[in-house]
Amino acid sequence: MSSFDNHIQRRLSAMKNSFADREAYKAMLDSGDALIYEVYENRRPEVAGELLSGLSIVHPGRVGSEYFMTKGHYHSVRDTAEIYYCMQGEGLLLMENEAGETAVEEFSPGRVVYVLPRWAHRSINTGKEDLVTFFVYPGNAGHDYSTIDTTGFRKCVVEQNGAVTIVDNPKNNLPHTEVSFHGAGA
Ligand code: S6P
Ligand code: ZN
């Protein structure tokens, strides 16, 4: 990873509002501040015309039944898109927009996922190894974390009876529609 300019490590203690099961969160934090995900960035000027890129690595694990994931965000400049290329691992990209629509795209090695402008996005590792994705997005996009940090996504991705399952987020009461899902075969 030596060719990257910046390395971010996001630990459990920095994700206080992210996981739905607060009791499981507190219990896990009591036994150590687990490393949930890391980002390696290529620095470029954060202006229109430039592209920002890097690697996102979400480690495997769960808080209660909810899989390890990124905090998730909107782009501050809403009309900016993003592309992810999955290099390793298994997971999902959970997306929602301000109209209350949810979309889920599968991550598997070699799969490209396009994030439309105006959609918040969160990477979720549903597998047993690191989920590694390459991302690229416009230099002027910026990050709005506070919207998601305040309400959470409308959906959570949990393990239920051994299966990856998308459920309503008990912490989020905003109106929402059905989930649209796109897997590797669709
Ligand atoms: C940036 C892009 C990714 C994420 C990374 C970590 O627009 O979507 O680089 O920053 O996956 O997620 P988060 O939600 O902590 O920024
Ligand atoms: Zn983004």
Quick structural overview:
With 186 residues, the protein is mostly beta strands.
Outline type: globular
- What is the CATH architecture term? Sandwich
Distance between the termini: 33 Å
Fraction in beta strands:
35-45%
Overall number of domains: 1
- In order across it, which strands form the biggest sheet? 1-2-3-11-6-9
Distinct bound molecules: D-sorbitol-6-phosphate, zinc ion
Q: State the helical fraction.
A: under 10%
Question: CATH topology, what is it called?
Answer: Jelly Rolls
**Helix count, per DSSP?**
2
Number of strands: 14
For the sheet with most strands, the description reads: 6 strands, antiparallel
CATH homologous superfamily annotation:
Jelly Rolls
What's the alpha carbon Rg, rounded to whole Å?
Answer: 16 Å
Mean pLDDT: 96
- Please trace the helix and strand order, writing H or E for each element: EHEEEEEEEEEEHEEE
Low-pLDDT ranges: none
CATH class: Mainly Beta
Based on secondary structure, the structural category is mainly beta
